């Protein structure tokens, strides 16, 4: 008897398999969307849930629950737009249908009786009628009051192909369906107009980051809508927005007190000098990008000295060119910089040394086109122990000593020498290979770009000696590259995963065919 009871108890219990395959699968999609939204930051967990059954797989692989929506193809974006439009229409129709059925059933239940006698006479008959009405009516489904795009926080159209197919109407129809947007990237979406920004700011009241780089059609009207409706804005990128004027930007800065990142690169009307009157409202900035913004030493002094919290600063391609005076200002007022671009400036080795001593937290520096820095790179690396990325592109010459100090470095992970000339090492001692595998393992460089670089086979051999951890190598248009050197690189660099070798005319066709079948390394010729 006890066994029978136990068997009954066990059979009446709901197992995990029953829940996964049955009960939870019967939940309306609106509820499942809300449940899965709590896992939207964990792709691994979502993929595991997607393997339970087809219902879960469909919901998880749909657009509904992803907080970041990034597109590479126009067709995908168009499908996303169509689905949200269809959901909005279905949502409205279902709500009307649910209410009409609810009201109809309610009216049938509460029919007003004529008298007490009639109520008693028809009580039984009325119950039958109501039962018939409700049993044949479809159940009122749970319907979420939130939009399906409610969970989307970030919209990124920066990498989408054929951006010209994205119309103003498509964008304007999209924003009401994703009202909780916080981060929008319209990089080079030149179809974005003032009307699009007006609709965006009207529908999405939580905007914090707006990247409008390359939206050349935008005018001061767009900044007006942003300042009026996006007071919590923290990031604004108006690079290449050539029509916007300083007055509109100043008005926005006066209202948006929480700005921490500002980009005015390539703004012909809003140049660096226009920031001087508004610098008192920019003291909370942590990122300032003024690439090709007609910056000078004097402008740098008037702006940078008033913004002590800067972490990232881009002063590339200044006009007139920056000198060592600018480096003195930067090192004195920006000790917490982690990102610095001084490309195509006139700084010398002394200025570079000043930067190294004053900005010891640097992780990234761009010295492309700074042809006066001479042979200071090795000393600079010792001043900045955290430096991970260095750009030395378009330099007339880089000493062999500087080149070796970078590829041997225990800190640099990414170095670029595009279109630069690298001299050979003068000392025969420096040409010796590492004495042990431990010494060879000290180099941390993982990505090395040498495209269109003038470099000798001796320097290329040094790469194979020292760069044990190298994973990516770009040697496009390196004319001294031949079959022997390339084979040596492949044999010695055991961690190499990808090689870009376009237009390497010294490499034979037979060698290219042979390496294209390489099992470990992916080659692009």
Automatic annotation (TrEMBL):
One Pfam family hit? LRR_6
SMART domains tied to this protein? FBOX, LRR_CC
Q: Which GO terms describe its biological process?
A: SCF-dependent proteasomal ubiquitin-dependent protein catabolic process
Q: Which parts of the sequence belong to the F-box domain?
A: 27-69
A GO cellular component annotated for this chain's UniProt record is: SCF ubiquitin ligase complex
Which SUPFAM superfamilies does the entry mention? Answer: F-box domain, RNI-like
Q: Which InterPro entries match?
A: F-box-like_dom_sf, F-box_dom, Leu-rich_rpt, Leu-rich_rpt_Cys-con_subtyp, LRR_dom_sf
Positions the record marks as coiled coil are none
Q: What protein name is recorded for this chain?
A: RNI-like protein
UniProt source species: Rhizophagus irregularis
